[in-house]
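Below: protein 1.
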Amino acid sequence: MLDGPPIAAGSYDVTVTAGAGFDVTVTRTLVVEPRDLGVTNVQWADRTYDGTTDAIATDAGLDPSNLVDGDDVALTTPLVGAFAASDVGDHAVSASFELEGDDASNYALVAPAAGSATITARQLTLADATVETRIYDATDVATVNGTLQGVVNGDDVAAEGSFEDVDAGTDVPVSTTLTGPDAGNYVLSRLQAWSGRSSPRR
């Protein structure tokens, strides 16, 4: 026999005893299922590439139409999720939300539909950059030395230079671009910052 109605989700043993002279007692299990609770107005934040699929929502709320008045339940913060891919671009984002509060166990969170957000290129700086002097060879290849600052650990990206004039000369402008499998996730803070020398061939 229950001491009052069940007020929380869970399993309860219920014993019923017949009256009016009938000596019959029946015990059954009563299951109170958690109440489905949806999420509304989910907004995902764009962010800079960092090699992960981590996502953060800037806004989301619980569907008030399925909340019992007076219950203490809320979304756990931060509001986290995952991009479908870690590379630069526009991607779908799936939520990994959880509930908290004294009454959270009485609800089953319904995952919201996938949203979308953008991962933007990470800016790199080529520090202590120098351009090696070389002998004229009718190509625009320039060897640029320096340290790329801001590369995510494990990424394969390098700086490659090219003279803007293939003829021999001094202080020839050098354009620098990024190469490597992960180059598309980065942008150089300065693309034309150096000059070099191509010596005449003797």
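Below: protein 2.
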Amino acid sequence: MNLWPFVHFFAFISYVATAVFVLWKNPRFAVNRVCAATILCFALWSLQMTVLSAPGTSHLTALFFVHLASLGWLCFTPFLLYFVAILTQRKKLVKSLAFRVFIVLGPALGLATQFSGLLVADVFYTGQRWAFVWSSSFMGIIFVLGCALYVGPAIFFLVDFLKKTPNIIRRKRARIMLFAVIASSSIVAFSNLVFWPLGMATVESMTSLMGVVWVFFIAYAVARYHFLAVSPAMAAQNILATMADMVILCDSEGRIVTTNRACINTLGYGQDALKGKPVDILFFDPPLSQSPSFCSILCQDNVTNLSTEFSTRSKQALPVLLTSSLLTDEGGQPVGAVLVARDMRVLRQAKKALFASEQKYRQILESMDECYFEVDLAGTLTFFNDAVVKLLGYRRQEMENSNFKSFTKPNEARLLFRTFHQVYKTGEPRRLTDYTVITKNGEERRLESS
């Protein structure tokens, strides 16, 4: 009994289920969508092998599924490169038009060649199953070389990422992916350069199943390292990246491990220019004795709203409000610190503008001939101009913090209080006519006000 159709169909179901699982983990992430598309390429390959191995498959049906599966084995390596580029955080490359054209161009040319009959010439029955033949002996080599154009950069990106990333979890994910990429690309190469020319149909049939290894490592990375899923660390990283405040993470030796985008943009440094540098270089000259050094930060549990100055790349002073928090290990020993700094330039400018506006406002009120005063909810004078001082005959120091009741009759004081209260409640202006104030020498004067 030929078990290969059942084995290949099981692989097909496994691929589809894994692709659905990856999309379910986070369908909004581009890396999840591209990963699912890459896995579905294996699914098409297994579907082709299921039909070619099934008894009773006609020549026309076999040829149709070979053409259908060509979508998988022609798109697999471009999708793989796209997936690895996103995974290794090559954001500029992924967004570039040239890269996207390169991703689309290979499959487009391959499919055009395939459906023109220039890639796979025909299918033939081997006695056990259907198999296809290249239109020429060089087509298998050309196909593998075309795959290498995509697999080569993918391997380079992963190796380069392994060397540069300080994140242990990301390095483990990248190491898993590197092994999976090399294994899967080796399958494709041996399938087309060794097994087919030697007529090893049974061995070649097994190669379509070895793609399960690649999918297995994806599933392992998802389960073990939260790969392709939203984790608290990933969420925290995205939050830090979008924060308006500057965030600096330092190790136990006072060297900068990472900074967020706001810090880079505000201070004017390059992407990795601060990495590995002493955190003290962030603080502006004059000497460090007048600025908080990293040692003084580590000696405290935290620093809150400390007013200091950072130094930009162009050596200009940047006023900041600094907050820091000590990072400790499980034993309570310091392992680093997180510094959060708020750029105070805008706030200081706003305060200056407000102060200038208030000064102008005060000068206008002081120069008025009409009396002007302000009271709080208890009726205590909080501000009054020189016209009030002149009218009542007191010195300014004598009137400060006095209550308006001191300058009027008791019955009219109650009227004034009710009026003030009504204005406070409704927010609407009220006019008072003909009420009495008492000057310092006891003289009564009739006034009206609003």
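The chain is about 55% helix and 15% strand.
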